[in-house]
Amino acid sequence: MPSKHTRQFDRSNNSNMHGEDRRISRQNGYRSPVPSAGNAGSEHSPVRQSPPRTPKPRKPKRKSGESVFGNILRLLGVLLLLALVMVLSIIVIKDYRLRRNNTPDGGSNLTSSAAIGSAATESTLPGEAEVGSETGETEQGNPETLAPPEPEYVFEPHAVESTEPTAYVDFTGIQVNNTELENISDYSSPYEPISFDKGKNYTGVKGIVTFRGDNFRSGASFGSTQSLSSRKFGSGWEISTGSLTDYNGNVWTGSGWTGQPLVARWPKSTRAIMTSMYDWARTQEDLVEVIYATMDGKVYFLELSTGKATRRPLNMGITYKGGGALDPRGYPILYLGGGVRNMDGRCNVSIVNLIDCTVMYKFGDGDPYALRDWRMFDSSAIVDAETDQLIQPGENGLLYIIHLNTQYDENAGTLSINPDNVVKWRYHNRRWTGNYNTPGKYWLGMESSCVAYGGYLYLNDNGGLLMCLDLNTLELVWVQDILDDSNCSPVLDLENGHPYLYVSTSYHYGWRSSGKETVPVWKIDGETGEVVWRVDFTCYSESGVSGGVQGTPAVDDTSVYVPVARTGNNANSGLLVSLDKKTGETNWEYSTNIYSWGSPIRFDDAAGGKYLIYNTGYSATGYVYLMNALTGEVYDSRNLNGNVEASGVVFENWLVIGHRSCRIFGIPLT
């Protein structure tokens, strides 16, 4: 069992870096003044004298029978009148108490007996003060009186002493349209403020449009999965991919880390204008298209249910490790970040028009504003739909924010972009020992995919930093030390409206040590960067093939599922662990003889079953597992005869995943 260190986060004691109280204050309503009863009938009241009585004429005497009957009627009348008076009195008193206890803004002003010196009784009427009471007010206990509402949580990221950016970052810089700003405070965007909503609202596209689905990186499944009655992998399809040699003579094959496909159920009206798509695919009533960028430098387009090619492969000539991204607005745009410099030395980000599969724009190759010459972009981009801005981190240490100026007319079948505001943000990690041409240790740059919420971006880098950046001012808000080279992406989860991040790191051989080392999994407060809890695992590593957490965790309502590589019995074994989100305690563990670099997929079926897909890969052997997310029980497994270090996706009842042995698989879930 891994060792654990747990600390619970107390939001009520939050303070900013200046020690100012940041708790949200709540203003109670005021009490309405109650007239004093002491003035009624006082010695200063004038004496009222009755006027002299005038004798009334006598009424004729009734007979005895009439007298008895009349007396009965009069008695009934008096009783009825008394009953009516009592009912009216109760209504008036109840209304008075309700009005007195309600504040002008509709809140309730409850006063405890300790505050007024004595407890109220049900017989206390308006104006009658209890002994020891200064105001005559009492706690009535009226069930119709509502307690004041809890204050609404306001998301205001800020640093505390342990997450001050200056402790980890020497400086930052901003360049706008190739002109560097003298001061960070001079930066001002000409567009409306960027503000990302919850991950589930990132896109209206029916599919998986970026790594782990959305801006929270919260999952890689989409659609309603029919009930898995047999809980087995069915017979599906597979296709072949290829290989590509890079600038340094290395050969890259198949689908590798992170290697996640994209999936879209394109509307028929959108497919109708896609001239790059085969006629049968354009005219078919329904089509779900798999878009898979691979290490052989090509992008494959496949029908989900058959594996049949929907277009010719797009040959880009650059190895792709990351899966790219589709535009969340449903525009036929593909954003692709290169993973390795090709034979010509090129590596960049390409923006592809999926109408005709032409490249509309490129950026990032040999950028002179970068502090590190490492022109790779494994991170999967996100797009702020409201402001038409692309957000793309790079391993060269630059964050690109590009206004696309997108023009899309589906009726006319036209699409174009004309970037007119290119912003680059850079930083310098204090622990980085390299320079522009020499990598050194604790590299500068961002290899994993970023997370966004509100106007803030979360980035973990190759040098062991987790950073919170204000997207609208480009000021670094807080930084947390996460020790080592980070390859898994953080995952954001809202818990009672408060954002938390689940993140881990790799064990990079030769940086902290060259044998075994601790790899923590953290729960981080998204507002302050403080550690909520930490769970440690002991991992092995070797040069070029790191241990630790390479795949991105999966999160659901109660648990976080983390793949830990090179831990356990030997350097090749692995572990999938389910941790309690609140405490970090272990729910269950599943050990395998082969480690995983892939990201687990969490999904439910229509019958309420809770499932995980987990994949492993080392050398020429790799498995996929169908598991019970609650218990870790394995329902089914399949040997795919290849290193499955890529991350898959689930769309309805289909799993799509590739491996390093040049195959892509479509596997039905039954």
Question: Explain this structure to me?
Answer:
- It is a single chain.
- This protein has 670 residues and is mainly beta.
- It has a domain at 97-147.
- A six-stranded antiparallel sheet has the order 3-2-22-19-18-17, with no helix packed on it.
- The two termini are 34 Å apart.
- The model is unreliable at 1-67 and 96-143 (pLDDT under 50).
Key features?
disordered N terminus; 8% helix; five-stranded antiparallel beta sheet; 670 residues; six-stranded antiparallel beta sheet
Write the layout of secondary structure elements.
Blueprint: E1 4-6, H1 64-101, H2 113-116, E2 169-176, E3 179-180, E4 207-208, E5 221-222, E6 237-240, E7 243-245, E8 251-253, E9 262-265, H3 268-271, H4 279-283, E10 288-293, E11 298-303, E12 314-315, E13 325-326, E14 333-337, E15 349-353, E16 358-363, E17 382-384, E18 389-393, E19 398-403, E20 407-409, E21 414-416, E22 421-429, E23 451-453, E24 456-460, E25 465-470, E26 476-481, E27 491-495, E28 498-504, E29 506-507, E30 516-525, E31 531-540, E32 547-548, E33 554-555, E34 559-565, E35 574-580, E36 586-592, E37 601-604, E38 610-615, E39 623-628, E40 634-639, E41 649-651, E42 654-659, E43 663-668
Parallel strand pairs: 5-41
Antiparallel strand pairs: 1-31, 2-3, 2-22, 4-9, 6-43, 7-8, 9-10, 10-11, 11-12, 13-14, 14-15, 15-16, 17-18, 18-19, 19-22, 20-21, 23-24, 24-25, 25-26, 27-28, 28-30, 29-32, 30-31, 33-34, 34-35, 35-36, 37-38, 38-39, 39-40, 41-42, 42-43
